[in-house]
Amino acid sequence: MVQLEEVEDADLKREQPGPFDEASFVEDDADFTDTDSSLSSASDDDSPSSFLPSESLTDRILALRDMIPPSTRHRITTSTTRLFSLLKSSTLYTGKGLYVLGTGGLMVLVPYMMAVIEEQQFVEMEREQKAREMGSEILSPGAGQGAGQVKGPGV
Asked: How many CB atoms lie within 10 A of CB 155?
């Protein structure tokens, strides 16, 4: 016949590390004899921070993932993905539109501005021509009138 014998596990009786509980932490007055000293260093083994498990910031952020239900996480992920997709496509189309407007403006405005400048130069040349004609009439007022008249026999 088979007899069952209970075997106790040593790991189960051993105290397991966990979060620091201030109620179970017994302070010893002998540790606080120097009241003028600054804060204790990080190398103190009796400090409450030495009882806390060491975990990085990424571990803590990843642990937050378990607090949010999967359906909510899916909804957040989907809306974020759609938002970034919308921003990407709108930025792409805006850039293309600005490129088309810029190049089209250059294709139309540069020849137009050249034509306007040419017209201004032409108007300025006409003004100079008229000024020369007026200057020559002032210098020789009778030269233009007497050359074209012929005196007849009775006059």
From this structure: 4
